[in-house]
Write a structure and sequence with these properties.
There is one protein chain. The protein has 320 residues and is α+β, with helices and mostly antiparallel strands. It folds into two domains: 204 residues, Endonuclease III, domain 1 (Orthogonal Bundle), CATH 1.10.340; 104 residues, Nucleoside Triphosphate Pyrophosphohydrolase (Alpha-Beta Complex), CATH 3.90.79. The strands form two sheets. A three-stranded mixed β-sheet has the order 1-5-4, covered by helices on one side. It has a three-stranded antiparallel β-sheet with strand order 3-2-6. A hairpin with a 2-residue loop joins strand 4 and strand 5. The chain is globular, with a radius of gyration of 23 Å. The structure holds iron/sulfur cluster.
């Protein structure tokens, strides 16, 4: 595995360092974001907050703005809280202390402990579960806690304690590039001769997953106002409303107002798109029209201002 990884690994910006802070940022970003999508955010985030001290003292809206577009904003809020904690107490020294930080579960603690601290903890994500289930030809259903424990034990048994960070990344890399879900490329696999599923011809049937519940359609109509006769200064700007600070999701974020706030307003259907968040499939229609006489509480933002505020991903897409 390690020989293959040294030769075939993708060139990714977080792989050139074992710096704790950089590894930490990359692991939080990669929790729910694809590698290619995370790279520009990772680089921009580090340019804005080059160390834990600068992140700890940053105002929360600045952190959310830097995260804007990546989604799953609780990651950014937890990261910010954790940075304040680390700023006060220093970096964690091991897996246990890492697990005590906000936003760090068993997978992330193991990934950071192995990559940044060289400690032998197997990091078991979806890619690793797939590889382990196939290597062992284990038909356990992946959402079962017992199956997960078995896969974790097996991943821990396989881990090379001399290079735990590289070994974890090799397993993930194999799952991401060769041992992929539908058509594993077993001819290129460095561990094909140890693979029980390959020998049994069951690799495409593993890992076993319960059927997903069907996505729920949610219809959303958003309003974009194209001008206001009374105030030429705001021509070219967009009107946004802000989510309340006590909302469970996206508190403090700015977004386009929903069309149903303006009964009787006539807009033109400008664009439709779909945006999926977990099981909710948002079917968005963007409407454009003249600014209504009465507006709810909100603000106008010029195009240049939009990059400096936390804006929901759906509104960002709608404005694009
Ligand atoms: Fe995955 Fe095929 Fe390699 Fe087995 S041989 S680990 S199924 S890529």
């Amino acid at each position: 595995m390690l020989r293959w990884y040294d030769r075939a690994k993708r060139d990714l910006p977080w792989r050139v360092t074992r710096d704790f802070y950089r590894v930490w940022i990359s692991e939080i970003m990669l929790q729910q974001t694809r590698v290619e999508a995370a790279i520009p955010y990772y680089e921009r985030f580090l340019a804005l907050f080059p160390d834990v001290e600068s992140l700890a003292v940053a105002p929360e809206p600045d952190v959310l703005t830097a995260w804007s577009g990546l989604g799953y904003y609780s990651r950014a809020r937890n990261l910010h809280r954790a940075a304040k904690q680390v700023g006060a107490t220093g970096y964690p020294a091991d897996y246990e202390q890492l697990s005590g930080l906000p936003g760090i579960g068993p997978y992330t603690a193991a990934a950071i402990a192995s990559i940044a601290l060289g400690q032998p903890f197997a990091a078991v994500d979806g890619n690793v579960i797939r590889v382990v289930s196939r290597l062992a030809n284990d038909p356990g259903e992946v959402s079962s806690p017992l199956t997960r424990q078995r896969f974790s034990r097996e991943a821990q048994r396989l881990l090379d304690p001399r290079r735990p960070g590289d070994f974890n990344q090799a397993m993930m890399e194999l799952g991401a590039t060769v041992c992929v879900p539908r058509s594993p490329d077993c001819g290129l696999c460095p561990v094909a001769r140890f693979c029980a599923a390959r020998a049994a011809g069951t690799e495409r049937e593993l890992p076993v997953k319960l059927k997903k519940t069907a996505a729920r359609d949610v219809k959303v109509d958003l309003a974009v106002f194209t001008g206001c006769n009374e105030s030429p200064a705001i021509a070219g700007s967009v009107f946004l409303v802000q989510r309340a600070p006590d909302e469970r999701r996206l508190a403090g974020f700015w977004e386009l107002p929903q069309k149903n706030l303006f009964p009787g307003w006539r807009g033109r259907r400008a664009k439709e798109f779909v945006h999926q968040i977990v099981n909710d499939r948002f079917r968005i229609t963007v409407w454009r029209g003249l600014t209504p006489k009465a507006l709810p509480s909100g603000r106008w933002f010029g195009p240049a201002d939009l990059a400096a505020i936390p804006l929901t991903t759906i509104s960002r897409k709608a404005l694009q």
